[in-house]
Amino acid sequence: MTSLSPFVKERSIAHRGASAHAPENTLAAIREAKKRGAKWVEIDVKLTRDGHPVVIHDDRVDRTTNGRGLVAGLTLAEIRAMDVGSWFAASFVGEKVPTFEELIETVLELDLGLQVELKPTPGDDVETAEVACSVLEKYWPKDRGRLFLTSFSVRAIRHAAKLMPDTPRAFAVVVPPRDPRALLAEVDCQILHCTSELIDDDALARLKESGIEFAVATINDRAEASRLLSLGAQTILTDHADIGL
Predict the structure, then answer these.
(1) What burial letters (b/e) apply to 98-124, b meaning 16+ CB within 10 Å?
(2) Which of 52, 57, 193, 240 is catalytic?
(3) What topology is assigned to 12-238 in CATH?
(4) Structural domain boundaries of the chain?
(5) Would you indicate the residue range of the signal peptide (predicted)?
(6) Where do the DSSP E strands lie in 78-224?
(7) For residue 125, which of 61, 98, 120, 159 is within the disulfide window of CB 3.0 to 4.6 Å?
(8) How many angstroms from the chain centroid is the CA of residue 47?
(9) pLDDT tens per residue across span 122-170
């Protein structure tokens, strides 16, 4: 679990694609990330009511589409009928919530690395891992690498470990753990992802001392991103794919 040879060799990952420049978690955001120099992108996967994996962050569609309701309460056809670009800018009107399959196809076409966040609606943690892993097993080339799974859900990430034991996994936290190595061992992960809110100097020192590979999200200021990298983080997640680290 040491960070002597980090899995993610790049210093930044485009968070939900180039989400400062295009509607998050869309194919447009992935293409924009590539255009702006990203080597890796991060996206979120949730299940629809009829069990299809779609790329969207929130439990509800309200914030990022022109629809309303829980993702888990809507069918794929209902979600695909929604517009996911008009809230961001008129130039993205007509953009759709991607299926996970479409997302993978685009990432492979653009030759990007992919961080897949399993984002279950509370209650379908295991099912989200099962469906997402099944799709990856089918569509992600076996010898390609440049893929890892992550989740805030213990149940989802531990189930993913059983299904895809050879694919690296990251556990996501808000509170930096007192014993990072013990936590990663408990959840069967190799990488720790921390949100930025509670990352102070003591937490950074503790994480660096542990020797684990860790990343911080979501950092949009270049100076702060550089500071975190200098203090031990291997990777920064950012909405600005062209942050230039």
Answers:
(1) bbbeebbebbeeeebbbbbbbbbbeeb
(2) 57
(3) TIM Barrel (3.20.20)
(4) 12-238
(5) none
(6) 113-118, 147-151, 169-173, 191-195, 213-217
(7) 120
(8) 15
(9) 999 999 999 999 999 999 999 999 999 999 999 999 999 999 999 999 9
Cα(244)–Cα(225) distance, integer angstroms: 10
Q: Please name the residue ranges forming H helices in 111-200.
A: 125-139, 154-163, 180-187
Question: Rounded to an integer, what distance in angstroms lies between the CA atom of residue 242 and that of residue 245?
Answer: 8
pLDDT digits (tens, 9 = 90+) for 17-55: 999 999 999 999 999 999 999 999 999 999 999 999 999
* Residues 62, 81: Cα–Cα separation, whole Å: 14
Q: Is 21 a catalytic residue?
A: no
How far, in Å, CA of 117 to CA of 115, rounded? 6
Nearest to 21 by CA among 9, 4, 35: 35
How deeply is 144 buried, as exposed, middle or buried, from its count of CB atoms within 10 A (0-12, 13-18, 19+)? Answer: exposed
CA distance 204 to 131: 35
- Known catalytic membership, residue 15: yes
- Please state the rounded mean pLDDT for residues 208-235: 97
Given this model, what pLDDT does residue 4 score?
54
Amino acid at 183: L
Instruction: Say which DSSP state 85 is in.
Output: S
Identify the active-site residue in 15, 21, 159, 193.
15
Q: Provide the CA 190 distance to its chain's centre, in angstroms.
A: 15
Query: Which of 114, 147, 96 minimizes the C-alpha distance to 15?
Result: 114
